[in-house]
Write a structure and sequence with these properties.
There is one protein chain. The chain has 256 residues and is an all-beta fold. The chain has a domain at 80-236 and 249-254: Jelly Rolls (Sandwich). Helix content is 0%, strand content 44%. The protein is built from no helices and 19 strands. The strands form three sheets. Strands 1, 2, 5, 6, 10, 15, 16, 17 and 19 form a nine-stranded antiparallel beta sheet that branches.
Length: 256
């Protein structure tokens, strides 16, 4: 397969892909679940289920992550949060997801990455890479962010950017991040709009608190309901169910 080229002077080769060419529950060899309804640190309203097709299923060549107002385990809403399994851990690469986003006040879909180990401790010390976030009260505005010990939203220092994607809810768009030892760059349809540079290369005082991104990370796909950001303007009880649809997930590594 010919290498993919996007970031200048970097060539990528495909090393992992999920094209969703089957039907039913997500492939258990590739995907696990985060399960529960404790708010996930953001006062989210949904209960994330496991192995429940109403919330996560593959149909017509697409992964459907569906948030429903159907009551489960004492929660008014259900949804799913999928996690790439152990073979889906990478340090550096291009991470590309073609997706169509939900609509409605209270929806909060995300495509993002977390560290697979605790080398630098828990969140935010280990880092977080947000490839795509969208909140329903601000439709068709997509956000990319990076969180570290020094830069995170709870102390209002997060590094972030946003871009208008007029077709985010009506069509599929490609959300991608390119992560190298030098920097993290985020794209929509190959339009670059956010860069986070590795300060450890230029600042002798910088350490993991500024750049913890030298360890394996895994991918997460989820659709939250409400929460401190997604529910900032309330939750419209009339819009459910809502879904995020994923056409494919493709992971590339740099060509040596």
């Amino acid at each position: 397969m010919m290498p993919f080229v996007c970031q200048p002077n970097v060539k990528w080769r495909l090393v992992w892909a999920e094209e969703f060419e089957y039907k039913g529950l997500p492939d258990p060899e590739k995907w696990g679940y985060d399960v529960g309804g404790h708010g996930w640190g953001n006062k989210e309203l949904q209960y994330y289920t496991q192995g429940r097709e109403e919330n996560a299923r593959v149909e017509n060549g697409r992964l459907i992550i569906e948030a429903r107002r159907d009551a489960w385990e004492g929660h008014e809403y259900t949804s799913a949060r999928l996690v790439s399994k152990s073979k889906g851990d990478w340090t550096y690469g291009r991470f590309e997801v073609r997706a169509k986003l939900p609509s409605g006040r209270g929806t909060w879909p995300a495509i993002w990455m977390l560290p697979s180990g605790k080398d630098y401790g828990g969140w935010p010390s280990g880092g977080e890479i947000d490839i795509m976030e969208h909140v329903g009260f601000d439709p068709d505005v997509v956000h990319a962010s990076v969180h570290t010990k020094s830069y995170h939203h709870t102390i209002n220092t997060q590094k972030t950017a946003k871009i208008s994607v007029p077709t985010s809810r009506s069509e599929f768009n490609i959300y991608a991040v390119e992560w190298t030892p030098e920097e993290i760059r985020t794209f929509v349809n190959d339009r670059h709009y956010f860069t986070f540079k590795n300060e450890r290369l230029t600042n002798p005082n910088a350490d993991y608190k500024e750049w913890p991104f030298d360890k394996p990370f895994h991918l997460l796909l989820n659709l939250a309901v409400g929460g401190t950001w997604g529910g900032e303007k309330g939750v419209d009880e009339s819009v459910w169910p809502q879904r995020m649809e994923i056409d494919y997930v493709r992971i590339y590594q740099p060509v040596n």
